[in-house]
Design a protein that fits this description.
With 356 residues, the chain is an alpha/beta fold. It is built from 10 helices and 25 strands. It is 27% helix and 26% strand. The two termini are 21 Å apart.
């Protein structure tokens, strides 16, 4: 592969770890991503609460590697011509493309959601809104998954004068073990979060939420209901599944365009004994590392993966570490208290250090 040009689009957990690893090899690598600093998405709830979050410079992560960072956004892929077109008009020809644009908040076609709600991607804007608004405003967080739980706990702790409500279409933390879910609910209750389960949101207005289980008035709405892949893969003609995730083989190569590799949330990675891996930094970063080894000739084996844990921050002082089987099914055991907090903190703080 010596002398080839590899273009990586996206600098999230998968893309940045892939670019840094591929940059150790002999090929030219161009990373296309508008960010100057690593986003560290699993800490967006802390940013929303005004907590300081360490976000390393991308240039520092790539220091000493054969990687040129183009701080711009990929807006079009010409798969036939093998070109990436950027928002500033540049056309980058590639021999191999690594597609790692990841995912974004999905609004689910709910009327008014995109117009009236804050997503996790707008964490800094959400913080400015809360910091400058009356302290008694009600904040409704929509979504009973990990992102919604972490946001609700963090905001309730950071703004104790506000009423924080966590609104879920099903059970909050319903994928957890019974012990894990009970711990989450107990911490939320301690923080003063009102939990509204079985409340499917049908519309978002300037006055709050319209729900099947009863309306929820709120001055601020935060949307964390679900995620979806960025649409560029499907729009460009890569083969995708019904959810828009690119179809790949067991070496993470596009089944429709073998010169394109797809990693992270954008890829529908099917692992024997598990099925399609869920969107998470825990699955994205190993894919980026694997692809770096593959493209630099350090492995030729198919990609393999096994789950270990799932971690949740519950404010600054508490956390939950849910132990899981390799196939992502939950174990009864959880880690809480000081042990859970230290394990969670170690994982989150260690992620940027392991990008190289």
């Amino acid at each position: 592969m010596t002398g080839k040009h590899i273009v990586v689009i996206g600098a999230g957990y998968a893309g940045l770890s892939a670019a840094a690893g591929i940059g150790r090899g002999p090929d030219r690598v161009t990373l296309v991503a508008p960010e100057q600093r690593f986003a560290h998405r699993v800490r967006q709830h802390e940013i929303a609460a005004g907590r300081p979050v360490a976000r390393p410079e991308i240039a520092r992560v790539l220091r000493g590697r054969r990687v040129v960072h183009r701080a711009t956004r990929a807006v079009e892929l010409d798969l036939a011509a093998r070109e990436v077109r950027t928002e500033d008009g540049e056309r980058l020809a590639y021999d191999t493309l690594v597609y790692a644009l990841g995912s974004r908040t999905a609004w689910g076609d709910v009327p008014g959601a995109a117009e009236h709600a804050y997503s996790a991607e707008r964490a800094e804007e959400l913080h400015r809104r809360l910091a400058g608004a009356p302290g008694t405003d009600t904040v409704a967080v929509v979504g009973g998954g990990a992102t919604g739980i972490e946001l609700a706990a963090e905001l309730a702790e950071a703004y104790p004068a506000r009423q924080v409500r966590l609104v879920a279409a099903g059970r909050v933390g319903g994928w957890l073990s019974e012990r894990g879910r009970a711990h989450v609910l107990a911490v939320l209750d301690h923080l003063g979060v009102r939990v509204d389960e079985q409340h499917r949101v049908t519309a978002v207005t300037a006055d709050g939420l319209t729900c099947e289980g009863g309306d929820v008035p709120a001055e601020v709405v935060v949307w964390a209901a679900s995620m979806e892949p960025q649409p560029l893969a499907a729009a460009s003609g890569l083969a995708v599944n019904a959810r828009g995730r690119a179809l790949v083989d067991d070496h993470l190569r596009s089944v429709s365009h073998p010169e394109v590799y797809v990693v992270g949330d954008a890829a529908a990675v099917d692992v024997p004994g598990i099925g399609e891996l869920r969107m998470a930094c825990a699955t994205a970063m190993p894919q980026g590392r694997y692809l770096a080894k593959l493209l630099t000739g350090r492995t030729g084996k198919p990609f393999s993966y096994r789950y270990v844990t799932q971690c949740l921050s519950l404010g600054r002082g508490k956390a939950l570490v849910q132990l899981i089987h390799g196939d992502d099914s939950v174990r009864p055991r959880v880690l809480t208290g000081a042990t859970g907090r230290l394990v969670k903190a170690g994982i989150v703080k260690g992620l940027p250090l392991s990008l190289r």
